[in-house]
Amino acid sequence: MKLLAIETSCDDTGLAVLEITEPAGKPVFSILASELSSQTIHTNYGGVFPMMAKREHVANLPLLLEKIFADLKNDSRTVEVSSEQEQRITKMLSHEPELATSLIAYVRSHAKPDIDAITVTVGPGLEPALWVGINAAKTLTILWNLPLVPVNHMEGHILSVLFQGDQTTGIQPIADVAFPAIALLVSGGHTELVVVRDWMQYELIGQTRDDAAGEAFDKVARLMGLPYPGGPEISRLAASFSSPSQEEDIKLPRPMLHTDDYDFSFSGLKTAVRYLVQKMPQPLNDQTKSAVAREFQQAVIDVLTAKTMKALQNFGAQTLIVGGGVSGNQELRTQLTAKASNLLDESHILFPKRELSTDNAIMIGIAGYFRYQAGDLPELESLRAIGSLEL
Ligand code: KG4
Ligand code: ZN
Hints:
alpha/beta; five-stranded mixed β-sheet; 12 helices; about 15% strand; binds zinc ion
């Protein structure tokens, strides 16, 4: 089967077309096309403004739709859009009239693509942003008469690790993931430890009590005058650090490192960085910035690693899954792999391919396929954005 996947939960507009076959009873995913537009408008604000993100998604989606189907085989004909359908869609998209108009125009002027279902992120995320993807998905499923599969964005991050191939080689067979698994999810909005008992069976065992790990990277970057998103900036700076003598002066706390739970807290760490930086001669030189970046990054890695190791041990985990934007951090990958390989075979330590660690539609397509197979096809009208949707 072929799926169109749509992701608009934060500041990335993503579309992907996946083809799924099951040659030996196990799914193999091929990416037929993938488009991602990361909104640069937020760069100078240090974070994402929901209404700004929404406007960008409305502008991006029709453009990406045009691109993604341009090279794929289509049904030779366009479908008729009845005035009844047009009215239904205009009413449904009353908050995004521009989107309704552009999607209806797209469908009228393009052949129907050769796909069997549409899948879309319904939460968690920024509700105004989520609604754009959901409304686009509803519109296209009505006009092309297809099923619509809702997906939890965090499940997408978990399942993103399944795709290890390039565009054509597909994912590793699902039976190779041994359960129970521990999933560490580290993104801009979430920091969670989840026990995955079986496919699609999740139990949240710990989470951040304030800022998410990625959010801490973004806020610390902003403190040092670096652009959004801060994670890649901080990790680049940290990697450029070279003078060990200076490092000795810079010590930051490891919040909740020894607490008897699986929770995290990063807001105090960010405040500690603020006080530290305020005491330093201004403007900070590059050497100092990289020393702060390195110590901050190490503090985050230390707590993430310690709690993850504890969870692996206490739940007798057979597999470690790490997903979300922060899982792209090379130091986290190296250090967590070194520790976890004392308990697990390295082939059971799963990180997403680098380009799938941050938000994308491919992971939503993978999750959408599992949900479609499970028959999770709710009524179209009941589908809505849920900002704080849980796994
Ligand atoms: O998963 P994601 O793309 O979006 C959310 O669902 O939130 O994660 C984005 C977050 C941002 O906070 C960004 O700074 C962080 O992931 N991030 C990183 C790195 N790359 C992205 N954090 C640390 N190191 C990185 N290399
Ligand atoms: Zn995400």
